[in-house]
Amino acid sequence: MTDRTPGRSHRAAPVLTHPDDVPLLTALTALADPVRIQLVRTLADHPDWSLSCSNFDVPVGRAAKSHHFAVLRAAGLVEQRDDGPKRLNRLRREEFDARFPGLLDLALRDDEVS
Amino acid sequence: MTDRTPGRSHRAAPVLTHPDDVPLLTALTALADPVRIQLVRTLADHPDWSLSCSNFDVPVGRAAKSHHFAVLRAAGLVEQRDDGPKRLNRLRREEFDARFPGLLDLALRDDEVS
DNA sequence: CGCACTGTATGATGCTCATCGAACACTCTG
DNA sequence: CAGAGTGTTCGATGAGCATCATACAGTGCG
Q: Which InterPro entries match (chains A, B) (predicted)?
């Protein structure tokens, strides 16, 4: 049997990891997508752990949304925690800002995404 | 006859344009590429207008290099000027920094691109 | 003029990635 | 246990893009 987080594990997926040493390209690529920018902005407008994935209103299906959250998590932008059947989210503001000062502010500040 | 810059014009290509109101996604996408990051960094290490396109040592052919410069120009990161058969380049530091404060610093500061 | 040099445009190719539908896994409640 | 709700994984599909080879268009020099 493999590692499991207290809540859901979904197949043999390892515990949710949230890296601190993200390469620059990974961070830029993660933010260079309109859907992910929207996710990050929505997240910034709500308290930590107050939103589960299904609460985000983006124009893609569940599968794509799940994929985007995985990308954001791999980029160190989002932390996820399982709570019952839901997966709650939190923007890693300070952590990401420590790694890439000003980048998150830029993504949140600007109104015209494209 | 169409507009021409004093130097080369290449077919009916309009005068080289360098936008100021770049969308956020355009800027992030332009920087989310290892070759373009390298071009920007090389450019930052040399005086304005001191490098022509062929002076940049990136592991791609001439066509791809030309394409990358076009992307950087469209993102407002690079200004180009024709000088005889060469096309000289300049990093639009202040202009880009005014539009996206800190972003260029991040691209230049970090050593580990990927 | 003819040639070398520089850079762009075009067409083709291959790869990455965003997306979807469907199946699956887990949790909780009735 | 059965069913609803939530989210992930898988396979397939399509679009976009990075790249190349080639052809083309300027510039300047002999």
A: ArsR-like_HTH (IPR011991), HTH_ArsR_DNA-bd_dom (IPR001845), WH-like_DNA-bd_sf (IPR036388), WH_DNA-bd_sf (IPR036390)
**Would you call A32 and B37 a contact, using CB atoms and an 8 Å cutoff?**
no
Please say if the pLDDT value at position A11 is more than 60.
Answer: no
DSSP-H helix ranges across chain B: 24-31, 34-44, 62-74, 93-99, 103-109
Residue B59 sits in a domain of what CATH number? 1.10.10.10
Count of domains for chain B = 1
B26-65: per-residue pLDDT in tens?
999 999 999 999 999 999 999 999 999 999 999 999 999 9
A101·B101 Cβ contact <8 A: no
* Contact between the CB of A5 and strand C at under 7 Å: no
In a domain, residue A71? The reply is: yes
In a domain, B32, yes or no: yes
Q: Is the CB of A24 under 7 A from strand D?
A: no
**Is residue B43 in some structural domain?**
yes
